[in-house]
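Recap from last week: sequence in, structure out.
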Amino acid sequence: MKACGVSGAEKNVALLELPEPSSPGPGQILVAVEAAGVGPWDELLNGGSWDVGLRPPAALGVEGAGKVLTVGAGVTRFAVGDRVLAHEAPLPGGSGFWAERILINADHATACPSGLDVVHAAALPVNGLTAWQALEKLGLSPGQRLLITNGGGATGALAIQLAAANGIEVTATASAAATERLLGLGASNVVDYHDPDWPATVRGGFDAALIIATGTADTALPLVRDGGRLCSLTSDAPAEERGITSWDLYVEPNAAQLAQMAEQAAAGTLKQAPEPLPLSEGPAAFARVVAGRAGGKKIVLTGA
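Predicted structure tokens:
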């Protein structure tokens, strides 16, 4: 089958021809991939920093959407032909979503609502679950204040919307070009991260900070009130001080959370900005994303 991934230890991302996945075991489903998300985390898979059980030659990708081809023993939630989306890690078949077919655990998949197209479905899982799980752990209440660094990216934009929908006042850092878009998504204030003095332009005393831009945790910490919380998605949570709880968060598959966001996306209340590209452009798409040149859009590979 056609795929995009790595053939071995050299780690070069390339177009590949891979063997078909094995038949689903108990609790597993075989999915015909229609679209698959690309994110900076895929570089971690490629470099081995995030061990998802990849067994090269293998496709990259830990999220996507498609149709169920075969169900394993004990699977009752899905039938052949059902449309699903999922974030899967570790990968039970040793290969990812950037391929024509993938083997995943049925418990990590959720049904794709009829109003959600495959590109938007594939764009949602990792960014959406990361934002959801971070906000859930931050545990903010309506009226509290949250600082998000890199609000213009795919995860940040979803976090803004989820937080604002719960009555949380969001200040986000982003490029000046993203200001109008983020205000439209529910941010109360957007500051230009290009300004080295941006911390002085915001009112401190935030109840929490969500760190999505690498290298901003230490800058954000003084802006959090005593006893507040800081969650880093960039593995650089600073040491706790002034009673501030500080931690790194790593996304986990969660079908129930994904189902709720998929319904919101289908209803148009959770907005995304995916950019579909054919699987044949996978290597270039990967290079663009890891270089930070996605321009706030979520790249999705289609047409495997």
